[in-house]
Design goal:
Bound molecules: acetamide, zinc ion
Shape: globular
Number of strands: 24
Strand content: 25-35%
Number of helices: 19
Largest sheet: 8 strands, parallel, barrel
């Protein structure tokens, strides 16, 4: 009995010993009440620890630490100040005495903040750096420029801030609704702002103390409407909002901007965007056409690649590395570029296969602009659903070739701000999901267990410290139909399709509608079957039965073009040959938006065969289960 109690006590100690986010590599708990305030010893750059960590990759050696906490105080060993700093972050989360030996799985653990769509000021940024550092995040990527506002002082091109940092419209949505007009600094209607160089230096100073590298992103050649507004000579012609790679003026401006950016930011990486450029104007622009002819470029993708390669030469000549969104692979990747993979993981895979470095930030796991809880009960997001658990489940090396870890630098969470007007809402979207990304980047997969209680504790402390984090105690969670399944008469029964599903969204193929498994909040979770055509299926219940209800839930998510059906028809038959239409359910909802709507009807009938037909409104329609009772 005594041994059992000792064992239970030891287990309890182990379970609670791992209280940190991100989870450390090794933690051996010991007895006693920890003294977290008295430093007994500090060895930075000592021989013993250098020897212990000698076989680690260089980045891990630099970030490694050992922390011993006893009732008398704590002792830290590390090779660098950064390792020492990480030991202190772990110390703050220690609940027991014990010995921690720890280093990161990946060298790059990042967060991207969009301050273009809604401006966020220096103080807000400084506040977030503290929380990021506590998670051992070491890269802060600032999306400083985009259509909705230029946010960094550039002395050589003052109109970028004087005009293009100010707009008509408090929110991004207002600005879009009012025709995307810019304003002037000081004008009564002007909304926006920018970081001065002094602001940025303050951010950089604090970030350096927190061992966070700050990566500036200067978008090109797309998402550059504000630049073309301030300096029209770098656009193709009136009505074109991308930069013109045909004109020398474009390169002069970009290099002038980058020179000041490079002077300001010590970051080894300079991010140049590269995503989502609308290249259609380039096909008609005489300057672009002349450039393509002179350089022997076959298409507009190669023209973008020409621009990025030329900018890369400039950045490399200044001793820095070019980082860009995965579109920079199109038309040929620049020789030394690092790719940020956002449209899934394919871009990262291709970059790695080509011998380049990649940072993984696939939308499915890393886009924190998706809502984190039941979309119908949350503030409006930018479309889509990403729970804390799904973010935490990301495995960056999955699907990567052997040896990929040589080039897979790490992971990053991105928080775009189109739908996030306030600071409070920004924090709500950021926390606690960025903690999940931090753990994916730092912790070995075997150490990720027990995340819920650990992150809840971390998040509660964050809320207590004045951050407006999402409260995990109030999480609604996945759709009940997804979590619990759906009981009904047709489960396991055969379904015959008169039209097949769309190839991209097969879900569980013929089993989808009668597998008793409901879809979640996300159309891409493998439970929702997608169609561009009619849905027209027949379920065979095997015997004639009383039927009192038939229906199915459709989801709408306008962003990716998924809409509720125009109408649903229910037909019944005793023999599978002669069907009688028993209900037509029209879609009478006037507005579009993310929603989950049951198209069903009570019935008083007997039948063996149920035919379920749905006509699309436009684009896709998605259905998870046909419920028969
Ligand atoms: C991106 O989300 N357009 C990189
Ligand atoms: Zn052009």
């Amino acid at each position: 009995m005594k041994r059992l109690l000792t064992l239970l006590a030891a287990l309890a100690l182990c379970a609670s010993a791992y209280s940190q986010v991100p989870a450390p590599l090794e933690l051996t708990p010991s007895e006693g009440t920890p003294n977290l305030t008295r430093e007994i010893s500090r060895k930075i750059g000592g021989k013993a620890f250098a020897k212990k960590t000698a076989n680690l990759p260089a980045f891990a050696r630099e970030q490694a630490y050992q922390l011993i906490v006893t009732p008398k105080g704590y002792k830290i060993e590390a090779n660098t100040q950064q390792g020492y700093f990480y030991a202190l972050q772990t110390l703050k989360q220690m609940q027991t005495c014990g010995t921690v030996y720890d280093y990161p799985r990946f060298q790059y653990r990042g967060f991207m903040m969009d301050i273009s769509r809604h401006f966020r000021d220096k103080d807000f940024i400084l506040k977030q750096l503290e929380a990021l550092a506590s998670l051992k995040i070491n890269q802060f990527h600032m999306h400083l420029t985009d259509d909705a506002g230029w946010r960094i002082q550039i002395d050589k091109y003052p109109l970028l801030t004087r005009q293009a940092a100010w707009r008509v419209g408090e929110t991004w949505q207002d600005w879009c609704d009012k025709g995307r007009q810019y304003s002037q600094e000081g004008a009564p209607e002007a909304r926006g702002g920018y970081l001065t160089k002094a602001d940025i230096r303050e951010i950089l100073d604090r970030a350096a103390q927190l061992h966070i590298n700050v990566i500036p992103e200067i978008e090109m050649p797309g998402h550059s409407r504000e630049v073309v507004f301030a300096y029209p000579e770098v656009g193709c012609r009136e009505g074109s909002y991308e930069l013109c790679p045909g004109k020398e003026a474009t390169f002069e401006l970009l290099e002038g901007i980058l020179e000041e950016v490079i002077e300001l930011f010590p970051s080894p990486y300079i991010h140049v965007g590269g995503d989502e450029a609308d290249k259609s104007h380039w096909k008609e622009c005489p300057d672009c056409q002349a450039r393509m002819k002179a350089e022997g470029l076959a298409n507009v993708e190669e023209l973008q690649s020409y621009l990025i390669k030329r900018i890369e030469r400039f950045i490399n000549a200044h001793g820095r590395q070019l980082l860009g969104w995965d579109e920079i692979l199109e038309g040929g990747l620049s020789p030394n570029a690092t790719v940020m993979s956002w449209r899934g993981t394919q871009g990262g895979l291709e970059a790695i296969q080509q011998g380049h470095d990649a940072v993984m930030t696939p939308g499915r796991y890393c886009y924190l602009d998706k809502v984190q809880d039941a979309p119908i009960y949350e503030p409006e997001g930018f479309g889509g659903f990403l729970s804390l658990d799904v973010a935490h489940s990301y495995e960056p090396l999955e699907g990567m070739p052997e040896g990929a870890e040589m080039h897979l630098l790490g992971v990053q969470g991105n928080l775009w701000a189109e739908r996030i007007p306030t600071d409070e809402h920004y924090e709500y979207m950021m926390y606690p999901r960025i903690a999940a990304i931090a753990e994916v980047g730092w912790s070995q997969p075997s150490r990720k267990e027990g995340f819920r209680p650990r992150v809840t504790r971390w998040n509660d402390a964050l809320i207590a410290a004045g951050y407006h984090a999402f409260d995990l105690h109030k999480e609604y969670g996945e759709r009940p139909a997804f979590k619990n399944g759906i009981r009904h008469k047709a489960v396991g029964k055969k379904v015959t399709y008169n039209h097949l599903w769309n190839r991209g969204y097969p879900a569980a193929r013929e089993a989808t509608f009668t597998d008793g498994l409901g879809g979640g909040w996300s159309y891409g979770d493998g439970r929702w079957q997608g169609f561009l055509s009619d849905i027209d299926v027949v379920i065979d219940l095997e015997t004639e039965q009383d039927i009192h209800f038939v229906g199915g839930t459709f989801m709408e998510e306008p962003g990716p073009g998924i809409f509720l059906p125009k109408s649903v028809e229910i037909w019944l038959s005793a023999d599978g040959e002669n069907f009688e239409q028993v209900a037509v359910i029209p879609n009478e909802i006037q507005k579009h938006g993310q929603s989950y709507v049951l198209f069903g009807t009570p019935l008083t009938a007997r039948a063996r065969f149920v035919r379920f037909v749905a006509h699309p409104t436009r684009g896709f329609h998605f259905l998870d289960e046909i419920v028969v009772n």
